[in-house]
Amino acid sequence: MATRKARLLLRAGSNVTVVAPQISAELEQLLADHGGVWQQSRYQETDLHGKKLVVAATPERATNEQIYRHAMALSLPVNVVDAPELCSFIFPSIIDRDPLLIAITSSGKSPVLTRILRRKIEAMVPAAYGRLAEFAGRFRQLVKEHIVQDTPRRLFWEQAMDGTLAEQVLAGREQQAEAQLRERLQDTHALHGGEVYLIGAGPGDPDLMTFKAARLLQSADVVLYDRLVSPVIVDMARRDAQRIYVGKKRADHTVAQTDINQLLLELAQQGKRVVRLKGGDPFIFGRGGEEIELLAKHRIPFQVVPGITAANGAACYAGIPLTHRDYAQSVRFVAGYLKGDKVEHDWSVFQSTTETLVFYMGLVGLPVICEQLQAHGRSPDTPVALVEHGTLLKQRVLLGTLATMAEVVEREKPTAPTLIIVGDVVRLHEDLSWFGEV
Questions:
Q1: Which fold has domain 196-308?
Q2: Among 30, 87, 251, 390, which residue's Cβ finds the most Cβ atoms within 10 Å?
């Protein structure tokens, strides 16, 4: 352990003194190669005098505790290996792509976990990323002279570091990359234009977001998010990104839909990169089409990133397959919200026993839904599941039938967001929920 710590400190350019009766051959060679000192003796308090940082890595707990007390008395940063309670600082696990450095730490809780994460990240970050960082450093001032404003300049670098220019550098073709960079700097329109990303955030669990959604979210200057988006997902945005809540719930629209549309347009026209986060999928009861219609009219560049819709996420986590060879050969997504005093549908088309019905936003209208389905021919014994807060740790599944579900909801008092699943596939919940639930 002492050898590993010394290797790290010596590579960082430190003047290292090792105090120990015996050291490994590797450590002795490291000290010789980097001008370090081996003081061949047991520890004494005077060994800390004149030092800037202390690492205790002896096999003796009492000695380590003594070193910790002496270092703290001298106001020296001290790290006792494998004893987080005796550390005033910790060594993160390092991924070195000089000059790019990535540090991972579990705050001393699980060194093994940090090593596992380090191994995974090392596989994702090629050694050539150091060359890419050097390339960006050489042209940083040139780009700053061409693009004075901070936001457009950041957008330029984000596109450069995540596109064909970066690929050229990683492949060792830096001359071609330089030519491409200089060419882009001449395109003034591209340098100052805004863009909008309409992103489906999924049903709640942040792990269900796509890689593309996460990447674009982290590039945003402004994030507009609604009530159904998990706070953990909103926090994935850059720390300095502006966050604007535009959520809606029944009888309480914080921002009108037309105002949201207009705000997206205005922010993009200001040259900002705007992310519109929507729960589930933006094109399934998400009004995403309305939001991009105005952007298209004004020729604002936009991208739509699909998300896992609530029906898929909540049903899977509840162990309810929406289709099944023995129970349902089709599935229908239905808006369950009230319009006035009615849930307005042609109920006669919902009578197939081999079709699963999924009602979005149907909590308030559930009594009407159950009543109308029965009135138009569905059996009162038809199974019904209500999934509350689907895919989250607080997910709850309420079971009943068309005849009893209204009473179940009245008794259990679930809160939105909820999803209602009607059909024989609900019978599979008890057998499959152990696999599907969070």
A1: Cobalt-precorrin-4 Transmethylase; domain 1 (3.40.1010)
A2: 390
